[in-house]
UniProtKB/TrEMBL annotation:
GO cellular component, one term: plasma membrane
This protein's record includes keyword Cell membrane: no
Transmembrane segments: 32-52, 79-100, 153-170, 190-207, 328-346
SUPFAM superfamilies in alphabetical order: 4Fe-4S ferredoxins
A Pfam family reported for this protein in Swiss-Prot or TrEMBL: Fer4_18
Protein name: Cytochrome c oxidase accessory protein CcoG
GO molecular-function terms, A-Z: 4 iron, 4 sulfur cluster binding; metal ion binding
Keywords assigned by UniProt, alphabetized: 4Fe-4S, Electron transport, Iron, Iron-sulfur, Membrane, Metal-binding, Transmembrane, Transmembrane helix, Transport
Length: 461
């Protein structure tokens, strides 16, 4: 006897992605967001073109192993400063998050900034939210092809400009522009321009909220930096519930218009509480405030506030007073300490470096008059941007002297290996290794001076 076929149910482990059509938000936070867009992009796109002492103001010249930061020249030996900058960035992120949640993500993160720019291109080419939804639903025709082509053409052009600018921080941008115009870019420059352009085009044009939700690790561990007094975008449930399509006296202030959802770049409903998807852009605050203005209700149904403020009804002044809590004070103190140490070390660094390397071929040899001779190679770097002459000396053993030239002239930011021969009179120094000190000092500035220890070998009889 045959059995009836059983129905098969499919259980999806992951929900398919729903395309988000974010409505444009207008208001004070949207204005601040665009201010951040303009400021960050003026710095990013303009800085490579800024001249400084006849060169590019900011240039990470990997080929020459020199990093130019305005009036400062850093070498590979100065990698410690990069490590300190990363520590400063980390503590700054911790501090901002403890005070105001993901405010960095919502206003200044490159992903947010470029997504905002790409969405502006999208609105200009395809229209506002409803028009974009209709365009995607309709079959392909000449109008749809034209609008989609215009959007992607603008995206690609902007992404290429971004990739070109990024490479301009590592290759002199004027040289890069001339080579690009002459179609003579090298293979590595071409690769990195296209790679960064593709990353910008893909992340800001296609992935968007998926970068913030899935790819960015910050969304996952941000909760460890929050506490009940951190400012976050929140929905005032006591005031808003129960929801009603009309602003009736018996209902809450929320009229369930869903504008807060429509403007959200990650597609969440802030009324469901704090979610890791929320980037703190406050677009929902602007949307809700505009609705409250239209129905004649007070603003602030959705606002930047704290869990404690919602729970016990804190005033604005009470919220401000709770900012200076132990967590914030610790982050602030550590950040101030690191920044002070960083700037002190950077401003007081000597623009001269020297490494002393003994000649490994011959430990020591006896020359005329019974003198003992050792040979060294001094790697000398002038890290300043002016040519200088230096005087070389050695001490540590009675009668020790340099028999080669004791003056070195280096051009600006030049590094050179200098062979040096040192002799000690017969009978001076103990048999075996003796500590000596090489001193290099600028002839025009006694403050530019470095010392380096080395060993002088005296043969055993």
């Amino acid at each position: 006897m045959s059995q009836a076929p059983q129905s098969v149910s499919v259980i999806r482990m992951y929900a398919p992605r729903t395309h988000i059509y974010a409505r444009e938000a207008k208001g004070r936070y949207a204005t601040w967001r665009w201010v951040c867009v303009w400021l960050t992009q003026l710095v990013f796109y303009g800085l490579p073109w800024l001249p400084w002492n006849g060169r590019q103001a900011v240039l990470f010249d990997l080929a020459a192993r020199k990093f130019y930061l305005f009036g400062i020249v850093l070498w590979p030996q100065d990698l410690i400063y990069l490590a300190v900058l990363l520590i400063v960035a980390a503590f700054s992120l911790f501090l901002f998050t403890a005070i105001a949640g993901r405010v960095w993500c919502g206003f200044a993160c490159p992903q947010t900034v470029y997504t905002e720019i790409f969405m502006w291109f999208e609105r200009k080419a395809e229209g506002e939210r409803s028009a974009r939804m209709r365009l995607d639903r309709q079959p392909w025709n000449l109008e749809k092809v034209a609008r989609k082509s215009a959007k992607h053409g603008a995206w690609i052009a902007f992404a290429l400009w971004t990739g070109f600018t990024f490479v301009g921080y590592f290759t002199p941008v004027r040289t890069l522009a001339a080579e690009t115009a002459a179609l003579a870019l090298g293979p590595w420059q071409t690769f990195w321009v296209l790679f960064y352009s593709l990353a910008t085009y893909g992340n800001a044009g296609w992935l968007r909220e998926q970068v913030c939700r899935t790819m960015c690790p910050y969304a996952r561990f941000q909760s460890a930096m929050f506490d009940a007094d951190s400012l976050i975008v929140s929905y005032d449930r006591q005031r808003g519930e129960p929801r009603s399509s009309k602003a009736a006296k018996t209902s809450g202030a929320c009229i369930d218009c869903s504008l807060c959802v429509q403007v959200c770049p990650t597609g969440i409903d802030i009324r469901n509480g704090l979610q890791y998807d929320c980037i703190g852009c406050a677009a929902c605050v602007d949307a809700c405030d505009s609705v409250m203005d239209k129905i004649g209700a007070p603003r602030g149904l959705v606002r930047f506030t704290t869990d404690n403020a919602l729970r016990i009804g804190l005033s604005t002044g009470a919220i401000a007073r709770r900012v200076l809590r132990p967590r914030v004070l610790v982050y602030s103190g550590l950040l101030l300490l690191v920044i002070t140490a960083f700037w002190t070390a950077l401003l007081n660094r000597t623009p001269l470096k020297m490494d002393v390397i003994r000649d490994r071929g011959v430990l020591a040899r006896e020359v005329e008059d019974g003198m003992i001779e050792n040979v060294y190679r001094l790697q000398v770097m002038n890290t300043s941007e002016q040519p200088r002459r230096y005087r070389l000396a050695v001490s540590g053993i009675d009668g020790i002297r340099i028999t080669t030239a004791d003056e070195v002239r280096l051009e600006a930011t030049e590094s050179r290996a200098v062979p040096v021969t040192v002799r000690v009179p017969h009978g001076k120094g103990s048999a075996g290794s003796n500590k000596v000190v090489f001193t290099l000092e600028a002839t025009d500035d006694a403050g530019v001076r470095v010392e380096e220890k080395a060993m002088f070998h005296v043969p055993r009889n």
